[in-house]
């Protein structure tokens, strides 16, 4: 009489399989079909069959009987009764083959504290030259009274009575498939393994407190509103012995009376009247570090650009600097006295009249933007 289930085929084994091969095959298939891991409705029945096969093939006497008769001992060939087989979820499988439990310890491991960020306001000059400033941060630190322990100074946390310091509790449930043992975090100690019976009065047992700190900050020349500085370990305190987080600083830069920043360049407008532009002139123009003499050639047109090398911002992480860009802004007077009007009329009469129209130049089109 052949059995309803071929145990060797079920485990994918030859009939001369060794004890070690049987154990490995069972471990692999039990993990795959265990009801705790497999939501397929057929997984329970499949897992039952796998356990029946292992129960027989792992016992030398039962295996010998099965090999001779083709039937499991004690039930007339119908397979072993599964109601008598107890298993404790994935934990028991891991205990059998690895010497531990499926779930790792729930004790809280050290991890880094949270990063924090602040924004620092700078003047245009401070962004250009660099500055030393103090920055105020609000952050969580270890309690200065209990040093992060959470207990009143002079006392220590006690072992949790519910989990006996393990941080986990095991609960057994009976079902039609046997006994299931579930491991969960202890609700009394939150997985810590200890409880605080005399909380620190300053932090109320939390081990951490909110504080405000002023930290010195050395701002290099050339920062802008896209820049970000990091101060290592100046963030919030770590958890359970972990390192503190980091502090990230962003900048808000005020505007300047003359200059506009474009990346590392400084841009300014140079107002010229008609005579200065037509005749040319020499002018002292402001820079961030004093004045610079600029020669404006005769016939300079509105929108002409002059570039003064190395008078812009210093580039971060570099010794190079940007330039100062000077854009001519031609001024047309809207009020003239009698003498000025007469002079311009005489000049107009002496100049050739424009007789042809033309396409606008690119610098004129830019004014439409």
**Envelope shape:** elongated
Strand order of the largest sheet: 10-11-15-14
Ends apart, CA distance between termini: 94 Å
CATH superfamily of the largest domain: Heat shock protein DnaJ, cysteine-rich domain
Structural class: alpha+beta
Total beta strand runs: 15
Fraction of residues in helix: 10-25%
Q: What is this structure's SSE topology?
A:
Layout: H1 7-11, H2 19-33, H3 43-57, H4 60-69, H5 89-98, E1 116-122, H6 124-129, E2 131-142, E3 158-159, E4 168-175, E5 178-185, E6 194-195, E7 208-219, E8 228-231, E9 247-253, E10 260-262, E11 265-273, H7 274-279, E12 281-287, E13 290-296, E14 305-308, E15 324-331, H8 338-350, H9 362-365
Parallel strand pairs: 1-9, 11-15
Antiparallel strand pairs: 2-7, 3-6, 4-5, 8-9, 10-11, 12-13, 14-15
Helix pairs in contact: 2-3
Structure description:
By secondary structure, the protein is α+β, with helices and mostly antiparallel strands. The chain has three domains: 7-85, DnaJ domain (Helix Hairpins, Orthogonal Bundle); 116-253, Heat shock protein DnaJ, cysteine-rich domain (Chaperone, DNAj Protein, Chain A); 260-368, Urease metallochaperone UreE, N-terminal domain (HSP40/DNAj peptide-binding domain, Sandwich). The chain has nine helices and 15 strands. It has helices at residues 7-11, 19-33, 43-57, 60-69, 89-98, 124-129, 274-279, 338-350, 362-365; strands at 116-122, 131-142, 158-159, 168-175, 178-185, 194-195, 208-219, 228-231, 247-253, 260-262, 265-273, 281-287, 290-296, 305-308, 324-331. The strands form six sheets. It has a four-stranded mixed β-sheet. Strands 1-9-8 form a three-stranded mixed β-sheet. The longest helix is centred in the first third of the chain and has 15 residues, at 19-33.
């Amino acid at each position: 009489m052949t059995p309803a289930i071929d145990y060797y085929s079920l485990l994918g084994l030859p009939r001369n399989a060794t004890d070690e091969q049987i154990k490995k095959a069972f471990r692999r298939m039990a993990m795959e079909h265990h009801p705790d891991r497999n939501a397929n409705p057929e997984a329970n029945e499949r897992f039952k069959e796998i356990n029946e096969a292992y129960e027989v093939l792992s016992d030398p006497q039962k295996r010998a009987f099965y090999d001779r008769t083709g039937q499991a001992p004690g039930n007339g060939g119908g397979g072993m009764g599964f109601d008598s087989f107890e298993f404790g979820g994935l934990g028991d499988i891991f205990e059998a083959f690895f010497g531990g439990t499926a779930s790792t310890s729930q004790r809280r491991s050290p991890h880094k504290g949270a990063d924090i960020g602040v924004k620092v306001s700078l003047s245009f000059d401070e962004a250009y030259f660099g500055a030393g400033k103090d920055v105020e941060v609000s952050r969580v630190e270890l309690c200065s009274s209990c040093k992060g322990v959470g207990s009143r100074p002079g006392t220590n946390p006690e072992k949790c009575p519910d989990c006996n310091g393990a941080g986990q509790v095991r609960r057994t449930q009976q079902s039609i498939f046997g006994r299931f043992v579930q491991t969960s975090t202890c609700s009394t100690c939150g997985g810590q393994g200890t409880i605080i019976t005399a909380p620190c009065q300053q932090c109320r047992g939390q081990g951490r407190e909110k504080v405000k700190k002023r930290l010195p900050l050395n701002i290099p020349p050339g920062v802008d509103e896209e820049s970000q500085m990091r101060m290592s370990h100046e963030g919030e305190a770590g958890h359970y012995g972990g390192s503190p987080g980091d502090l990230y600083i962003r900048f808000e830069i005020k505007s300047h009376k003359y200059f506009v920043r474009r990346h590392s360049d400084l841009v300014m407008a140079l107002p010229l009247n008609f005579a200065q532009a037509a005749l040319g002139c020499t002018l002292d123009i402001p820079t961030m570090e004093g004045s610079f003499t600029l020669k404006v050639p005769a016939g300079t047109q509105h929108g002409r650009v002059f570039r003064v090398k190395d008078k812009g911002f210093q580039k971060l992480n570099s010794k190079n600097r940007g330039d100062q860009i000077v854009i001519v802004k031609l001024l047309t007077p809207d009020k003239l006295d009698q003498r000025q009007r007469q002079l311009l009329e005489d000049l107009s009469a002496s100049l050739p009249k424009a007789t042809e129209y033309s396409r606008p130049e690119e610098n004129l089109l830019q004014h439409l933007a």
